[in-house]
């Protein structure tokens, strides 16, 4: 194979992940990092001279600015072209525009009031501003935290996406380079950083997201630990913008709700309510070729201006269309989360993104996959509420209906070649069928006392006390606790699977059964002779001819080994060890298995002394039996045990003595020998 061509002063092959620039003289390509040319600077170069050609032909030639209102500032300023978003002229005009006050739609609340229960009862349809942080659960660095501190915690070599505001175009650069730019007193252009997700860095330990975002998040509640798809990390963003940074109107990916907290500086939000009419206008505006030349706030009835100063947290609900202006150098933290309160709107926003052909980079990661996980969990939720004879809240019923419709649409797309994000352990058609069945149950009960409730604070149609129907409590909190418990149990099972396997009682019983059956398979003559030989050594005083244990005794031995047979009336001095006893030795110093053996179980050697087993046995719960380690299994010929507990007592009616049973066995053996 031919060697790959080499480029740049470093003589390395082409790397798609690294920015390169072509020399207009020698036509060779150079890595921007090797020739000190940043990607966002390259657009300002008219004719580039590499370090070699620079010596002969002089420095590179820069583009000449001809206007201040177009993304391409080289266009002639003839006054015929409109102002484009993000340019210096646009920013000045924006600051001079008049808007409706954000106080008309803003809900100002204390941190302790913003809870999942409150939002479930009253809905989450309008932005919430929080100035008193106590009770919100939000943890942040101090206000002295700087961009240099971010570099220290995240790492200066991290590649980030920055937005050149005047061109409304993004480019890549190292975080260390952005920090240098941010700290300069005079900046040649306006750069904005809004996509630094730091969940996988040391800085993550400094930030705890608001409780309401954590507890309501689909990712936190429904995403399984063993998912084939990588877990989406969208809850922790650091936003660093210089004065006059601007982000044009948009809806957060997947219709996610978002929380912002301004650590220092100030941001101004321009908010538009997601009515059906406004969403239709937004989709048309987003797909228009002159989008940057039209200020979307002028196309709707009302656009609200909301100033967010230092120390304020803003929560924006699903689907709200918003633009953001950084009025002064600012550092903010934020995050996105999907939840159950506005499922229909979330799905509508996702479908809009698909129609607009939004690149995957700007969409919620594995949105369809998490919807399948949510559908599976909501099915369990509906079943639990139905079993409790409790009505699900209206937002949940409407959300499940919207989810069923979306899942059906995605399955049809798969037939047409669309790649489907269905988790392996989920049966999509069965899941949709079961969800539809649950909705049908609810619709059939319409008009009865248990129908979907509009207010989550009300019980089953009566009162609003918390002691009534379980739906009066926070449904999400209750079911999330159960899911967390199931998750912990799943992790425990995984740990147990990975740990060395300890043989169970049934495993030991099976092994013991095989050993006994092997002995019982010995022929009658061999059996008698072997018994004579072994018993002559162990019991010389016996006058009865010994033989191998009877089938009944073998079964008793097997059951006792498995812990399935225990004395119904344990005698004094032979107390049974109970499950949960942590001591490995009994009061006489015997091991647990030895103490269990010495509970009056009949031994072949006891029969040599004409004693009869007094203790009668019954089946017992295996869970009450002490576990037997393989090293403590019964020996083929256990040592003699004390028979004081049974001495002098008559056997129960119908119970043959050991001597009688032994005589019967010998008689059968003599009879069998005649026919051999």
Automatic annotation (TrEMBL):
GO biological process, one term: brain development
SUPFAM superfamilies named among the record's database cross-references: Clavaminate synthase-like, FYVE/PHD zinc finger
UniProt KW keywords: Chromatin regulator, Dioxygenase, Iron, Metal-binding, Neurogenesis, Nucleus, Oxidoreductase, Transcription, Transcription regulation, Zinc, Zinc-finger
Top-level division of the source organism's lineage: Eukaryota
Major localisation: nucleus
Domain JmjC: 198-354
Domain PHD-type: 5-56
Signal peptide: none
PROSITE patterns: JMJC, ZF_PHD_1, ZF_PHD_2
UniProt biased composition (Basic and acidic residues): 569-584
Stretch list, region Disordered: 564-664
A GO CC term attached to the entry: nucleus
Annotated compartments: Nucleus
Cofactors named for this entry: Fe(2+)
InterPro entries attached to this UniProt entry: JHD, JHDM1_Histone_Demethylase, JmjC_dom, Zinc_finger_PHD-type_CS, Znf_FYVE_PHD, Znf_PHD, Znf_PHD-finger
GO molecular-function term, one example from the UniProt record: histone H3K9 demethylase activity
Polar residues: bias regions: 585-596
Pfam family, one: PHD
The family this protein is said to belong to: Belongs to the JHDM1 histone demethylase family. JHDM1D subfamily.
Record's protein name: Lysine-specific demethylase 7A
Native source species: Myripristis murdjan (pinecone soldierfish)
